[in-house]
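sry for the spam today, last one i promise. C-alpha cells for design, 122 residues
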C-alpha cells in the first residue's frame, strides 16, 4: 500500500444540542480534561473539545441524539482506586469489570449516557 495510518487523532462522542456546559462540568470539572478551542468555523455547529495527552475528545452535537451504549472510548489511567474514590465523591457511578486479564477497569457514562471505559494495567 502507498499509505499508512499514523495514529488516532481524536475520539468523537455525540451529545444533544445545548450540551456544552454539562460537558465542561463533566470532562473538565470531574475528569480533569482541559478544554481546547474549536476552530472558528466549527464553533457554530456546537459541541466542545477536550485534550487527553496527545489525543482530543470531541463532544459533537447530534440532532437525533442517541447515546452509545456499547461502542466506547477506553482511557488508560494511573491510580484507578483514587479515581474511583473521586468519582464516588462527585456522585458519578461506575461499574467494576474484572473480565480483562491484567487490567483493573471500570465503566462510567458521561452526562449524555455515552459509555466510557477506564482501565489501569497491572
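last one done:
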Amino acid at each position: 500500500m502507498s499509505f499508512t495510518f499514523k495514529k488516532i487523532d481524536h475520539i468523537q462522542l455525540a451529545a444533544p444540542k445545548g450540551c456544552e456546559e454539562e460537558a465542561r462540568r463533566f470532562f473538565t470539572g470531574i475528569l480533569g480534561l482541559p478544554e481546547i478551542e474549536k476552530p472558528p468555523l466549527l464553533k457554530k455547529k456546537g459541541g466542545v473539545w477536550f485534550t487527553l495527552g496527545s489525543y482530543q475528545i470531541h463532544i459533537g452535537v447530534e440532532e437525533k441524539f442517541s447515546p452509545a451504549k456499547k461502542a466506547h472510548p477506553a482511557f488508560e489511567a494511573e491510580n484507578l482506586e483514587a479515581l474511583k474514590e473521586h468519582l464516588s465523591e462527585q456522585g458519578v457511578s461506575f461499574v467494576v469489570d474484572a473480565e480483562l486479564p491484567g487490567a483493573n477497569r471500570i465503566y462510567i457514562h458521561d452526562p449524555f449516557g455515552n459509555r466510557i471505559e477506564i482501565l489501569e494495567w497491572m
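The beta strands are 10-15, 35-36, 48-52, 55-61, 74-76, 95-97, 103-109, 115-121. ok im logging off now
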